[in-house]
Amino acid sequence: MQITLERSKCIGCGACASICSDVFRMAHDGKSSLKDTELSDLQKIETEIACPKEAVEICPVKCIKVK
Ligand code: SF4
Description:
Layout: E1 2-6, H1 15-19, E2 24-26, E3 32-34, E4 42-46, H2 52-58, E5 64-66
Antiparallel strand pairs: 1-4, 1-5, 2-3
The chain binds iron/sulfur cluster.
């Protein structure tokens, strides 16, 4: 499963890190970041962890994609 996070759109609500802390963390700039990934406007990782699907549903600005 590929996770894409468009950090440029993130409003820093913290919901994804709260519901899926194995994949998301809140970075020092106040936006979400994929764990163990260099900060950039667009981040991608491959993972078998399932909870990013829940994060897609709750993100208020729809900046998380899963495929
Ligand atoms: S749920 Fe969306 S807006 Fe909220 S911190 Fe996560 S990526 Fe950012």
